[in-house]
Amino acid sequence: MNFEVLENFEWYNEPENVRFEANDMVVYAKEGTDFWQSIQRGFKKDNGHFFFCRKVEDFQFVLKWTIEDLVKFSQCGIMLRIDERNWFKASIEKETSNEFIITSSLTNGGHSDWSKTDVSSYNGEIWFKIVKVGDEYEIFYSVDGINFVKFKMFYMFSFEDVKVGAYISSLEEENFSAILSDIYFEDVF
Asked: Is this prediction's pTM over 0.85?
């Protein structure tokens, strides 16, 4: 990880424990954290940990998470955020003891949706990429950092900048941790 890239990053809900190693950042999620909005069901969480920078122009943003022990309802991934009522997240999650999924949630006006994609080849490392062109976004994942699979496209209007970065949360597990690395921006092709 090029730590100079991180100079413009900041935390939303900074975790209590973050440790820097040679080329990585180890992040520990506090128990009971999540990002979710459901007005109809009365469930609202906006206390996950989000490490981000602000962008106005078009971009490609890539990051990698390494997880040794992924437990159910714990998640780490990529996030795009306008405010607490308008955001997108995608993450790796454990569905059953040996089945992993990529989940995504687009929240508009305080209403979250949810979808999943099976990832049979997950091996403890996952890359995510967001491509922004205007107010349109494409989301990709990769299990090898080379071959990226597009799994979502959406529109999100922004008056000014958007916040883009890494997120981690753990609804039920205390001290869930993951390693963040390979965080960088690329030119839009």
From this structure: yes
pLDDT of residue 189: 65
pLDDT, tens only, 150-184:
999 999 987 789 999 999 999 888 879 999 999 99
Which class for 118: exposed (0-12), middle (13-18), buried (19 or more C-beta within 10 A)?
exposed
* Residue 144 β-bridge partners: none
8-state DSSP, 189: -
CB atoms near residue 92 (< 10 Å) = 24
Is residue 141 a contact partner of residue 125, using CB atoms and an 8 Å limit? no
Over residues 90-108, the pLDDT tens digits come to 999 988 777 899 999 999 9
CA distance linking residue 103 with residue 122, whole number of Å: 13
